[in-house]
Automatic annotation (TrEMBL):
Belongs to the cysteine synthase/cystathionine beta-synthase family. The keyword Lyase applies. This is Cystathionine beta-synthase. Keywords: CBS domain, Lyase, Pyridoxal phosphate. The chain holds residues 1 to 328 of 455 of the full protein.
């Protein structure tokens, strides 16, 4: 019989699939690494597992302990899944702007969710940063992974994502493209690939974020871009950073679902736009690998909703022709 001992053993080992429609006219090969096939539905399962295992080894997380992290997104799901299987409790702290669906996913795995007001500065005792720090102090056996500064985030990608890309392309990968949030994916995967051969590493960043020279100006694509420089990010790894607009990111996200059968999130569309811009200048021997972090299921009410897209002016003229009439 062939089966995994636990769902945690299913983390990683995601496949590559060739993009064939959105790449029309390009001569190089563009392969997407499909991270929504992780058991928690995103690339973040990888860092969750590695951060928990390292904390266990260091004695920071002991049997019966509690994981406390300010997160509402994919990292929370990964941590909740690993914690549950290893017998830890989870308390996630998130701002009230986070939708009920996202909170309910965490609760479904058995995690506790503490909601804090969004409209307070980070130094306010009610802010979600302050509340998570207080909970770490007050809960006995509490441990905070802190994905923005935890070296085991990039390490998980150095040990799993990088070797998978290298092995699955049989060392033929020439370019690796990934969105930058905490910077863990690009830092760990990029470092590993550069040690194997002459691989060019490209970061994709929302316009307005610091990685592409912005000030942290708001953008709508989720999970990527920052208004500060996290220590999980090593700026010496990417050879280039490509800034992508929300409109371009979301339009490509919809094309990936309609044309490639990949229902993925907005940061995936963003990374593919960056990958295609790079691919335009490449030749038939080049192999571009672009990492797609999560699924589109979490964005049905936004990116895949014509009214939402139209309300921001994101719908291209060729798509959703009736929406203008509906809104008029
Ligand atoms: N896309 C999504 C949807 C994410 O949740 C994240 C993680 N914040 C990223 C991209 C970026 O990954 P990383 O934090 O490793 O830079």
């Amino acid at each position: 019989m062939r089966y995994a001992e636990s769902v945690v053993d299913l983390v990683g080992g995601t496949p590559l699939v060739k993009l064939s429609k959105v790449t029309a006219g390009l001569s190089c090969t563009v392969l997407a690494k499909v991270e929504y096939l992780n058991p928690g539905g995103s690339v973040k399962d990888r860092i969750a597992l590695k951060m928990v295992e390292a904390a266990e080894a260091e004695g920071a997380l002991k049997p019966g302990g509690t994981i406390v992290e300010p997160t509402s997104g994919n990292t929370g799901v990964g941590l909740a899944l690993v914690a549950q299987q290893r017998g830890y409790k989870c308390v996630f702290v998130c701002p009230d702007k986070v939708g009920a669906d996202k909170r309910n996913v965490l609760k479904a795995y058995g995690a506790e969710v503490v909601v804090c007001p969004t409209a307070v500065p980070p130094e306010d005792p009610q802010s979600y940063y302050q509340v998570s720090d207080r909970l770490v102090r007050e809960i006995e056996g509490a441990w905070k992974p802190n994905q923005y500064a935890n070296v085991n985030g990039p390490a998980s990608h150095y040990e799993s994502t990088g070797p998978e890309v290298w092995a699955d392309t049989e060392g033929r990968v020439t370019h690796f493209v990934a969105g930058v949030g905490t910077g863990g994916t690009i830092t760990g995967t990029g470092r590993y690939l550069k040690e194997q051969g002459p691989v060019t590493v490209i970061g994709a960043d929302p316009e307005g974020s610091v990685y592409s020279g912005g000030t942290g100006r708001p953008y709508l694509v989720e999970g990527v871009g920052e208004d500060f420089w996290p220590s999980a990010y090593d700026p010496s790894i990417p050879d280039e950073i490509v800034a992508v607009s929300d409109a371009d990111s979301f339009q490509m996200t919809r094309r990936l679902a309609r044309e490639e059968g990949l229902l993925v999130g907005g940061s995936c569309g963003m990374a593919v736009v960056a990958a295609l811009r790079v691919a335009e200048r490449l030749g038939p021997d080049d192999v571009v690998v672009v990492l797609l972090p999560d699924s589109g299921r979490g964005y049905l009410g936004k990116i895949f909703n014509d009214e939402w897209m139209a309300s921001y002016g994101f719908l291209p003229a060729t798509e959703g022709g009736t929406v203008g009439q509906v809104l008029a």
